Amino acid sequence: MTTLPDDDTVREALRQVDDPEAGMNIVELGLVYAIEVTADAVLIDITMTTAACPMAEMIMDQARDAVAAIVPPGTRVEVSLVWDPPWTPDKMTGIAREHFGWTF
Protein backbone atom coordinates (compact mmCIF):
# COMPACT_ATOMS: atom_id res chain seq x y z
CA MET A 1 0.00 0.00 0.00
CA THR A 2 1.32 3.42 -0.97
CA THR A 3 0.80 6.19 1.52
CA LEU A 4 -0.54 9.61 0.74
CA PRO A 5 1.57 12.70 1.35
CA ASP A 6 1.07 14.80 4.46
CA ASP A 7 -0.24 18.38 4.42
CA ASP A 8 3.26 19.88 4.28
CA THR A 9 4.20 17.80 1.24
CA VAL A 10 1.00 18.85 -0.53
CA ARG A 11 1.69 22.49 0.35
CA GLU A 12 5.20 22.14 -1.06
CA ALA A 13 3.79 20.75 -4.34
CA LEU A 14 1.41 23.72 -4.51
CA ARG A 15 4.41 26.08 -4.37
CA GLN A 16 4.96 25.10 -8.02
CA VAL A 17 1.72 26.88 -8.97
CA ASP A 18 2.13 30.56 -9.73
CA ASP A 19 -0.52 33.22 -10.01
CA PRO A 20 0.71 34.67 -13.31
CA GLU A 21 -0.73 38.10 -12.60
CA ALA A 22 1.09 38.36 -9.27
CA GLY A 23 4.22 36.50 -10.36
CA MET A 24 4.34 34.44 -7.17
CA ASN A 25 3.19 31.02 -6.03
CA ILE A 26 -0.25 30.52 -4.51
CA VAL A 27 1.11 29.36 -1.16
CA GLU A 28 3.16 32.51 -0.52
CA LEU A 29 0.23 34.64 -1.71
CA GLY A 30 -1.97 33.03 0.95
CA LEU A 31 -4.43 31.60 -1.58
CA VAL A 32 -4.36 28.08 -0.12
CA TYR A 33 -6.94 28.01 2.65
CA ALA A 34 -7.18 24.31 3.53
CA ILE A 35 -5.58 20.96 2.79
CA GLU A 36 -7.16 17.72 3.95
CA VAL A 37 -5.59 14.35 3.24
CA THR A 38 -7.99 11.43 3.73
CA ALA A 39 -7.54 7.70 3.16
CA ASP A 40 -8.28 8.02 -0.56
CA ALA A 41 -8.26 11.70 -1.48
CA VAL A 42 -6.56 15.05 -1.16
CA LEU A 43 -8.98 17.95 -0.74
CA ILE A 44 -7.78 21.50 -1.21
CA ASP A 45 -9.58 24.81 -0.76
CA ILE A 46 -8.09 27.79 -2.55
CA THR A 47 -9.23 31.30 -3.23
CA MET A 48 -8.25 34.07 -5.61
CA THR A 49 -7.24 37.62 -4.84
CA THR A 50 -10.44 38.77 -6.56
CA ALA A 51 -13.63 37.15 -7.80
CA ALA A 52 -12.88 38.68 -11.19
CA CYS A 53 -9.62 36.73 -11.56
CA PRO A 54 -9.44 35.57 -15.18
CA MET A 55 -6.86 32.90 -14.30
CA ALA A 56 -8.90 31.02 -11.67
CA GLU A 57 -9.59 27.91 -13.77
CA MET A 58 -6.00 27.69 -14.96
CA ILE A 59 -4.64 28.06 -11.41
CA MET A 60 -7.06 25.41 -10.11
CA ASP A 61 -6.06 23.01 -12.92
CA GLN A 62 -2.37 23.56 -12.21
CA ALA A 63 -2.92 23.00 -8.48
CA ARG A 64 -4.76 19.73 -9.22
CA ASP A 65 -1.99 18.61 -11.58
CA ALA A 66 0.80 19.49 -9.12
CA VAL A 67 -0.80 17.43 -6.37
CA ALA A 68 -1.81 14.57 -8.68
CA ALA A 69 1.88 14.20 -9.57
CA ILE A 70 2.80 13.35 -5.95
CA VAL A 71 -0.04 11.00 -4.98
CA PRO A 72 -0.55 7.34 -5.90
CA PRO A 73 -2.42 6.68 -9.15
CA GLY A 74 -6.17 6.63 -8.65
CA THR A 75 -6.10 9.04 -5.72
CA ARG A 76 -8.82 11.65 -5.99
CA VAL A 77 -7.49 15.22 -5.95
CA GLU A 78 -10.21 17.80 -5.49
CA VAL A 79 -9.50 21.53 -5.67
CA SER A 80 -12.38 23.78 -4.60
CA LEU A 81 -12.62 27.51 -5.12
CA VAL A 82 -13.86 29.26 -1.98
CA TRP A 83 -14.60 32.90 -1.22
CA ASP A 84 -15.03 32.84 2.55
CA PRO A 85 -13.16 34.40 4.13
CA PRO A 86 -12.36 36.90 1.40
CA TRP A 87 -8.68 37.12 0.55
CA THR A 88 -6.82 40.14 1.91
CA PRO A 89 -3.10 40.98 1.67
CA ASP A 90 -2.57 40.06 5.33
CA LYS A 91 -2.93 36.39 4.29
CA MET A 92 0.38 36.59 2.37
CA THR A 93 3.53 35.17 3.91
CA GLY A 94 6.39 37.41 4.95
CA ILE A 95 8.22 36.38 1.78
CA ALA A 96 5.38 37.68 -0.39
CA ARG A 97 5.01 40.89 1.61
CA GLU A 98 8.73 41.59 1.26
CA HIS A 99 8.60 40.81 -2.46
CA PHE A 100 5.84 43.37 -3.00
CA GLY A 101 7.27 45.86 -0.51
CA TRP A 102 4.22 45.61 1.77
CA THR A 103 4.62 45.68 5.51
CA PHE A 104 1.84 45.27 8.04
CATH architecture: 2-Layer Sandwich
Strand order of the largest sheet: 3-4-5
Total of domains: 1
Low-confidence stretches: none
Q: Tell me, briefly, the overall form.
A: globular
- CATH class membership: Alpha Beta
Radius of gyration: 14 Å
Secondary structure layout plus pairing:
Elements: H1 7-14, E1 18-19, E2 24-25, E3 32-37, E4 41-46, H2 56-68, E5 76-81, H3 94-100
Parallel strand pairs: 4-5
Antiparallel strand pairs: 1-2, 3-4
How would you characterize this protein structure?
The protein is globular and about 45 Å long. The protein contains three helices and five strands. By secondary structure, the protein is an alpha+beta fold. The protein has a single domain, classed as GMP Synthetase, Chain A, domain 3 (2-Layer Sandwich), CATH 3.30.300. α2 links the parallel β4 and β5. It has helices at residues 7-14, 56-68, 94-100, and strands at 18-19, 24-25, 32-37, 41-46, 76-81. The model has no long low-confidence stretch (mean pLDDT 93). The strands form two sheets. Strands 3-4-5 form a three-stranded mixed beta sheet, covered by helices on one side. A two-stranded antiparallel sheet has the order 1-2. Helix content is 27%, strand content 21%.
